[in-house]
Specification:
This protein has 363 residues and is an alpha/beta fold. It folds into two domains: 215 residues, Vaccinia Virus protein VP39 (Rossmann fold, 3-Layer(aba) Sandwich), CATH 3.40.50; 117 residues, OB fold (Dihydrolipoamide Acetyltransferase, E2P) (Beta Barrel), CATH 2.40.50. The chain is 30% helix and 31% strand. It contains ten helices and 17 strands. The chain has an eight-stranded mixed β-sheet with strand order 1-16-17-15-14-11-12-13, sandwiched between helices. It has a seven-stranded mixed β-sheet with strand order 4-3-2-5-6-7-8. Helix 6 links the parallel strand 11 and strand 12. Bound molecules: S-adenosylmethionine (SAM). S-adenosylmethionine binds next to loops. The site of S-adenosylmethionine (SAM) has 19 residues, from loops.
Length: 363
């Protein structure tokens, strides 16, 4: 991979191709012209994951091309990665190649970094990690100034912390987020800031209370809470719920209730189909929900959750999969119209793009 590919011209061209694809996909839908939020052409990824390939006495970073899982190709630099990743890559590789205890049976390395300069490195092995490994790893982690995790089957050794704390600027305020290793976080922090600002700007006049599904670590929840009296947020992954609660405290935001539930379970709770002990301290009837915010995984919304969204005056739908967004908007269009549509280039130089839609109930 060379710097050549990541020029501003190449960036503009790949983005143009994506916006054209979105125009074509949504040609049969009533959507306004999308606002397009760009990324930097290099240094945009806060996370990266590489295989470690061993050849004789030398080990190097490698990746597989899609569909070719036998022979990986060597990676010497990673222009997409944040500067911390690019600084750490050669330094860590030198350490790996210099120490057989660290190198042997190492098959994957993951980097998680922040705009604020923190880094967490995860080393994944096909061997049991012992105290000798830990002593060697501790020396390396101190030299590199990072936290480090060693993983193997049923084993996790944490040197330092198993999270980083990211700082994002939204609407003139700084929000700090715990981001746990192996939990979901948005990969492109600068584009994430643009998504957060867009969601905040488009819900400023909503009033009342917000219900949010798929809240992750509270990424959108925290800045959106400033626009509402109260927020009810739900998320399936335990570690993300834990971080979302931690992040509320870290940022002094206290008008949010968070419950660990799937969107399917939360629908049942709203309809009083089932009672949930996880909601025993939360009175759902006391909320005055005007607005729903959803940011589902690639599969999009299940039919019942889609129907739930249609109960509210404003729907904010953020999606990492235009195909499922297109499918779900077809259904929601019966009751709501798209007032704003945005493209966020979270994943430059891949065919992926993040979309956001603001829908208002038809009058
Ligand atoms: C695209 S991420 C968005 C997270 C968050 N909004 C953010 O910006 O970081 C989708 C989230 O949905 C969660 N999730 C996946 N399936 C779910 C389900 N059936 N019900 C609730 N949450 C789910 C995942 O754990 C993940 O945190």
């Amino acid at each position: 991979m060379t710097e050549q590919r990541f020029t501003p011209d190449a960036y503009r061209q790949q983005l143009q191709e994506k916006t054209q694809r979105i125009d074509t996909l949504f040609a049969d839908s009533e959507i306004p012209t999308p606002e397009v939020y760009t990324s930097s052409p290099t240094g945009f990824r806060m996370r990266a994951e590489f295989k470690i390939w061993h050849e004789g006495d030398e080990s190097f970073y490698a990746m597989y091309r899609q569909g070719e899982y036998k022979t990986p190709y060597r990676i010497d630099d990673f222009p997409q990665g944040h500067e911390s990743i690019n600084r750490l890559m050669p330094a860590l590789l030198t350490e790996i190649n210099a120490c057989e205890t660290i190198r042997r049976k190492l098959f994957q390395v993951e980097f998680l970094t922040t705009l604020s300069g923190e880094a967490l490195v995860t080393l994944i092995y096909h061997k049991k990690l012992d105290d000798v490994w830990q002593d060697k790893a501790e020396i390396i982690r101190e030299r590199l100034g990072v936290s480090m995790i060693g993983r193997s089957r049923k084993q996790k050794r944490v040197l330092g912390q198993d999270f980083v704390t990211e700082s994002l600027q939204v609407d003139g305020r700084e929000y700090r987020y715990q981001q746990i290793e192996s939990s979901f976080t948005q990969p492109n922090a600068q584009v994430c800031e643009k998504m957060l600002a867009w969601a905040v700007a488009n819900t400023r006049q909503c009033g009342g209370d917000l219900v949010e599904l798929y809240c992750g670590n509270g990424n959108f929840t925290l800045p959106l809470a400033a626009n509402f009296e109260r927020v009810m947020a739900t998320e399936l992954a335990k570690s993300s719920v834990h971080s979302a609660r931690y992040n509320m405290q870290l940022n002094g935001v206290n008008n949010i209730d968070i419950a660990r539930m799937s969107s399917e379970e939360f629908s049942q709770a709203l309809d009083k189909v089932r009672e949930f002990r996880r909601l025993k301290d939360i009175d759902l009837d006391s909320f005055n929900f005007t607005t729903i915010f959803v940011d589902p995984p690639r599969a999009g919304l299940d039919p019942h959750t889609t129907a739930i969204t249609q109960r509210y005056d404003t729907i904010v739908y953020v999606s990492c999969n235009p195909e499922t967004l297109h499918r779900d908007l077809k259904v929601i269009a019966a009751t709501h119209q798209v007032e704003a549509f945005a493209l966020f280039d979270q994943f430059p130089f891949t065919h992926h793009i993040e979309c956001g839609a603001i829908l208002k109930r038809r009058v």
